[in-house]
Amino acid sequence: MSKRLIVGLLSFVCLLSAQRRVDPRNTYNRIMAVVPITGKGIAADPKRPEYAPWPASQDPNGIIGFYWIPTDDGKSAIVEFVARNRAAFSPLFNDKSIQVYEKGRVTREIIEAAMKAFRKDFDYEKNGLVMP
After folding, report:
1. Residue ranges of the chain with per-residue pLDDT less than 70
2. What is the pTM of this model?
3. pLDDT at 54
4. By CB distance 3.0 to 4.6 Å, which of 30, 53, 69, 70 could disulfide with 103?
């Protein structure tokens, strides 16, 4: 009886101390960038941010998702790119004409201040892509 009680208590304590799951908005590698909008606006070539894979990328080592909102002038987009590894962002890091902010390495306040220069109502908490 006492062995069962001890095993039961130890199991209960292990369950209590388990870690919480990571917020899906914080999984994978993520960057925020301001990039030009490309595309003709037709079904075969929709308007989308530059560097956004179209059609959806099947490459697990490339960009696997993105979320974007247009800037106030409508010529550019504020984009969150998501990839399984950081190497997928190499083209973005090498393009000196765009601003790139890496989530987790740059503070939320810096990203929000930079994006508000392009979109006045930008809110860091309301923008983002949830990846399963």
Report:
1. 1, 14-19, 22-26, 56-57, 132
2. 0.78
3. 79
4. 30
CA distance 64 to 116: 26
**CA proximity to 24, closest of 100, 76, 105, 80:** 80
Q: How far apart are CA 110 and CA 114, in angstroms?
A: 6
DSSP annotation of 84: S
- Which two tokens mark 31? 């960057």
Q: Which amino acid is at 121?
A: D
For 87, residues 6+ apart whose C-beta sits below 8 A from its C-beta are: 61
What average pLDDT is seen over the chain? 86
**Going from the N-terminus, what domains does the chain have, and what CATH number goes with each?**
22-116 (3.30.70)
Residue 31: partners with Cβ closer than 8 Å, 6 or more residues away = 80, 81, 89, 92, 100, 101, 102, 103
Read out DSSP for 34-72? EEEEES-SSSSS--EETT--SS----TTSEEEEEEEE-T
